[in-house]
Amino acid sequence: MSERKLYVGVDLRDAVTQIAVWGPSQEGPEVLTVKDGDGGETPYIETALAVPGSNELVTGFLAKIAAQEPVVVEGRESDPVNILAVFFRRTLSMTKKKYPQESIKKLVVTAEYDDYRFISVVFRALEKLGIDKDRALVVDRRQTYVYYVMSQKKELWVNQVGMFEFQKDRLIYFQMQTDRSRRPMLVRVFEKDYRDYAELLGGEEHSEEEKASIFEGMVQGAIHGQIITSLYMTGEGFADGFADDVMKRLCIGRHLFQGDNLYVCGACYMAGEAGGEKKIDSFVYLGEDAVSSYISIQAYTDAKEQEILLAKAGMPWYQIDEELDLIPDGDHELELHIKNAVTREKTVHFIPMEGIWGRTERKVRIGMRIRFAGADRCIITVRDKGFGELFPSSYRIWEETIML
Length: 404
Description:
It contains 8 helices and 26 strands. It has helices at residues 61-66, 80-98, 116-128, 141-150, 195-202, 208-223, 244-250, 262-274, and strands at 3-12, 16-22, 30-31, 34-35, 41-42, 45-46, 48-50, 57-59, 71-73, 76-78, 102-111, 136-139, 160-167, 170-179, 185-193, 228-234, 255-259, 283-285, 293-301, 304-311, 321-326, 333-340, 346-352, 366-374, 377-384, 397-403. The strands form 7 sheets. Strands 1, 2, 3, 6, 11 and 12 form a 6-stranded mixed β-sheet that branches. A 6-stranded mixed β-sheet has the order 17-16-13-14-15-18, with helices on both faces. Helix 2 (80-98) crosses helix 3, helix 4 (141-150) crosses helix 8 and helix 6 runs parallel beside helix 7.
């Protein structure tokens, strides 16, 4: 049986997909390649599926899944979960060719779409391949950008870090800021949309020199007054080289990197960190979908009283779904400890164990589940599981919502 030693990142895009793997003998991610039409190698895998026995090629299914539109194959509507599962199976099989004796320990998927309904389809597709939530994360691009930057040498992110993503129809500036006065550090990403510039730079009405001038003015405006340690330029919009001379001038006083594999490598770094490869400084990413608080409970386990972490600040809310069983020893309520990572405020939330009083002295087993309905809305579900034949379950279930 193969050992789970591989950390894998996947960057899903409408037209092409990239996959990176971090193997046991590597220092970091390697972007895998496929044969291109000219007999060479390319890191871009077409986001498409060939229909067996037909000339039909299924494309554009990511956008349709995100828009909740039907995916039609050979004139019939197909289950989007099955479509995505087949694509994942084909793409992830590339890791087996590279590492035939190892399997995936942790997988991180990032995509152009971060709607929860799209994310749920991704999770269900991965489950069809036997990759459950304990081995998989689905995160937005901003978070993989943060993990990529934080995995580099500290002198590259000692101050603020900027990134321009230029695709055919969009140009967005992301600025990463760290608060190193906190332990762990707090990391945020702010963004500004320059979509109008994408139209100017992608059209044919301006010369290469004019495009370079427009782009340079935009960049200088975006970073004016900021202490920028490093700049990253990513996306297919830079492929024709119109901004090469501008980038050389932007290197003065700062580092600048250009490439199109930042997201997939960042996802791979994140997979490694989630799998136990502690190679970067501890930090909390505060994104739109990230939980801002730690939630824990005190319990006696492994022969000692200790804190059990139920929810970790910085995790996407949709990724948190934890369950544990407790046997109360005279307690009449569950005591949850909540610590806000931003304000450092500590609060305690009590959940009364109504309906089982008289059995709270080691005569009942309590099942507790914690999950979220949003970044600031925590749902706690408590279930009476009974305690053997002498103390059968009352089948009572109660639930509370905690606003963070």
